[in-house]
Amino acid sequence: MITLKSTLSIGMASLATVSATSQKSSAPKTSTPNIIIILMDDLGYGDIGRNGANQYETPNLNKLTNQGMQFTWWYCPQAVSSASRAGLLTGCYPNRIGFSGALMPWAEVGINSDETTIAEMLKTKGYTTGIIGKWHLGHHEKFLPLQHGFDYYYGIPYSNDMWPVDFDGVPMRLKDTTDRKMRYPVLPLIEGNKKVGEVPDLRGQDKLTTDYTERAVKFIESSKNKPFFLYLPHSMVHIPLGVSDKFRGKSKQGLYGDVMMEVDWSVGEIMNALERNGLDKNTLIIFTSDNGPWLNFGNHAGTTGGLREGKGTSWEGGQRVPCIMRWPGVIPAGEICNKLASSIDLLPTLAIITGAQLPDRKIDGVNLYLLMLGEKEISPRREFLYYYGQNNLEAVQIDYWKLVLPHTGRTYRGHMPGLDGWPGPTGTETISRSELYDLRRDPGEWYDVSTLYPEKVKELEALAEKARKDLGDDLTKVPGANRREIGKLK
C-alpha cells in the first residue's frame, strides 16, 4: 500500500537512479508524453498472437509488441467489468473504493467524486482528456466521465449486453419470459452528458468498433498540439459480438476471430494516426483487458491460453490478462517483462512519468517506470490480492506463489460450455481448505503443493491477515479499517 508522501519519494529516487545508471533507454525527453490506454472487454490471456491465438491474424498487435514490451504477469484488479475499470482509473483495489461486480442500468451508485482518476490527475499537467467507448462506472450524470476529469466522452454507459435483446438477437418483448433482460432499457449512445443515439439491434453492435476507432483518430488529430490522454475502452470482445462487414467471415475462427481482426485493425488505425501526425515517438500506448474471457459463451468467447477458469473467478484465467506497452526511445523494443504488475499500477506510474501529484489518500498501485525501462533486477510489486464478490478475499500472492483461500466460486472445469454462442452450463466448486500453487511451474493451477511448502503457506496467510485488517473480508466476517464509500445518487 502506498501514500502520497512515500510514493513521491520512492518514485523520484527511482527516476534519479534511472538517469544515472540506465544505458539501455533514455529517461523521457518530456514530462508530458501523449498517453493512450486501449482497454479490451473480456479479452483472454491467449487471445493475442504472442500468447497462442490461432486461426486469425493480429499483425498490428504483433507490431506493437515487437516495438514495445509485453508484460506476461499482468493482472486486472478484479475479474469483472465495473470493479476492474474502477481500479484501473483510480490506482486502488476496487473494494477499497466501494466497487464490486458490474453496475446494472438501474444502479444508483457510481464512482465517488472524492476519488481521483487518471484523467483528473493528468488535467493538472495540462492534458486534454478523452474517453471513447464503454464507461461502466455509473450511468447517471454525476458519475459520467465529464464529471471525473474527461473533456470528451462518446460511447455506451455500461456493457453492451445490458439491453432488452436476447443472446440470439431476438428482442425480449417478442418472447414469453421473465428473464431479467426484460428490465433493461434500450442501450444508449452518449456524447458528453447527453444521449445522442441508441444501439437498437445486432447491426448496431456491428458498428461499435469502427465507430469508436474513427472518433479516436479524430480526437488524436484535434488534440495533437498539446499533450493528450485518450482512454479507449472497447465494447468488444464482450458478447454480443459485433463486427463490421469489412471483417465478417475473414477469419477461420468464426465470429470471434472476425471481431479480433477488427480489434487489431483498430489498433493499427491508432498507430497510423500517431505516425501520420508525427506523434508516435512521444506517445505511450498501453493495451490490456478488463478481465479474462466469459467462458459461458463457448466459441463466442476467447481463450485463457491454458490458464485456469475465466471471467468471474479469482483463478489465473479470470485475472491474468494481456498487456503491451510501446513508447519509442523509452521502452526497449521487443522486451518481455515477467514481473508481477497490475492495472492499478498505471496511475502512480503515470504520475511519476508526468510529474503529476498523486491523490492525497491511500491507493494500492506501485510505480512500474523502471520495469518499463527494461530494468531486470527490480520487483516493485511483490504482492497481489484477489478479491471478488462484495468483499471476498479469495486468494493472495507473493511473487509467483499463490495461496487460494477457502471459498465457493464458479467453475468451468468438467463442464462443456455452449459452442454456438449461447450460455453453456456452468458450475460451482467449494475450496474447503487453502491451496498453494507455484505459478512459475504451474500456471494452470492444477497441483496444490501446500503440504510441500508449509513455510510459504504461513507467509501468505500472514499477508491475508494483513489484507483483512486493511480491506476486510466478508468470508471471514472482518470489516476492514480502510475502505471508502462508493458514490451515491442521493
Outline the fold blueprint.
Blueprint: H1 4-21, E1 34-40, H2 59-66, E2 69-71, E3 74-75, H3 81-90, E4 109-110, H4 118-123, E5 128-132, E6 152-155, E7 187-191, E8 194-199, H5 202-206, H6 208-222, E9 228-233, H7 254-276, E10 283-289, H8 316-319, E11 323-326, E12 335-337, E13 341-342, H9 346-354, H10 369-372, E14 383-388, E15 392-398, E16 401-404, E17 407-411, E18 427-431, E19 435-438, H11 454-471, E20 487-488
Parallel strand pairs: 1-9, 1-10, 2-12, 3-13, 5-6, 5-9
Antiparallel strand pairs: 2-11, 4-20, 6-7, 7-8, 10-11, 14-15, 15-16, 16-19, 17-18
Helix pairs in contact: 6-7
Description:
- This protein has eleven helices and 20 strands.
- The protein has two domains: 4-382, Alkaline Phosphatase, subunit A; 384-480, Arylsulfatase, C-terminal domain, CATH 3.30.1120.10.
- It has 490 residues and is an alpha/beta fold.
- The strands form five sheets. Strands 8-7-6-5-9-1-10-11-2-12 form a ten-stranded mixed beta sheet.
- It is globular, with a radius of gyration of 21 Å.
Strand content: 15-25%
Q: Write down the CATH class of the largest domain.
A: Alpha Beta
Using only CA atoms, what is the Rg? Answer: 21 Å
Beta-strand segment tally: 20
CATH homology superfamily name of the largest domain: Alkaline Phosphatase, subunit A
Task: Based on Cα principal axes, name the global outline.
Answer: globular
* Main β-sheet, spatial strand arrangement: 8-7-6-5-9-1-10-11-2-12
CATH fold field value of the largest domain: Alkaline Phosphatase, subunit A
Report the end-to-end length measured between terminal Cα atoms.
Answer: 31 Å
User: What's the number of domains?
Assistant: 2
Low-confidence stretches: 1-27
**CATH architectural designation of the largest domain:** 3-Layer(aba) Sandwich
Helix content: 10-25%
